[in-house]
Amino acid sequence: KNQVEQSPQSLIILEGKNCTLQCNYTVSPFSNLRWYKQDTGRGPVSLTIMTFSENTKSNGRYTATLDADTKQSSLHITASQLSDSASYICVVSGTGFQKLVFGTGTRLLVSP
Amino acid sequence: NAGVTQTPKFQVLKTGQSMTLQCAQDMNHEYMSWYRQDPGMGLRLIHYSVGAGITDQGEVPNGYNVSRSTTEDFPLRLLSAAPSQTSVYFCASIIQQGARGELFFGEGSRLTVL
């Protein structure tokens, strides 16, 4: 069964600290992997998209990595800010946009 | 650029009532879709459309109906609301650019069925 598992479920860090969120998937065939940020009460917003041949992608203080061999991805947040408090969702795509498999997300709280 | 616009943002229904969630996008995207988001679960696809006049079922289509008469609009109809349909609904659109097309989401519609 195609699945995307994220860890941890929730995380609290101090402002200014770094953190890493994990995503493991069993989706096959694999097309791309996406990370989204979802603020409370808002829709998800894209952070990065990586295809099979890409193993790292950055978007400001967000850096995503992909290991297609082990089917793992991580999202690293550098120098966290209060505005980083949100849910981060890992999404893996098979063939076609109707084949997106969503993880349940990691809830991040950045504390002052 | 408004992006993807959903209305209403909040709605309370009684069991058996019907309603339509509206979704409009102004980016000329071919692909549009509806998801529901429930606690402890990833977003699940309800229905999708690859262009005007073309719709298909997703993972959880029962109790929902869609149509796509124009490129811009993709309404989701609840025919006879049930408490199990209490959820947050998201509309999304994408321009098909192979594997790298970016998916744009609306702000969500929170539905409570009593």
Can you lay out the helices and strands and say which pair or pack?
The complex is a heterodimer of chains A (112) and B (114).
Chain A: E1 4-7, E2 10-14, E3 19-25, E4 32-38, E5 45-51, E6 56-59, E7 62-67, E8 72-77, E9 86-93, E10 100-102, E11 106-111
Parallel strand pairs in A: 2-11
Antiparallel strand pairs in A: 1-3, 3-8, 4-5, 4-9, 6-7, 7-8, 9-10, 9-11
Chain B: E1 4-7, E2 10-13, E3 19-25, E4 31-37, E5 44-51, E6 54-57, E7 64-66, E8 76-78, E9 87-94, E10 104-105, E11 109-113
Parallel strand pairs in B: 2-11
Antiparallel strand pairs in B: 1-3, 3-8, 4-5, 4-9, 5-6, 7-8, 9-10, 9-11
Poorly predicted runs of chain A are none
Tell me the overall shape of chain A: globular
Radius of gyration of chain B: 13 Å
The most extensive interface, with participating residues per chain, is: A-B, 22 and 26 residues
Bin the helical content of chain A. under 10%
State the total count of DSSP E strands of chain A.
11
Spatial extent as radius of gyration of chain A: 13 Å
Report the biggest beta sheet of chain B as strand number plus sense, adding barrel if it closes.
Answer: 7 strands, mixed
Q: How far from one another are the termini of chain B?
A: 36 Å
The percent range for helix content of chain B is: under 10%
**What oligomeric arrangement do these chains adopt?**
heterodimer
Count of separate DSSP helical elements of chain B: 0
Mean of residue pLDDT values of chain A: 94
Strand content of chain A: over 45%
Q: What is the overall silhouette of chain B?
A: globular
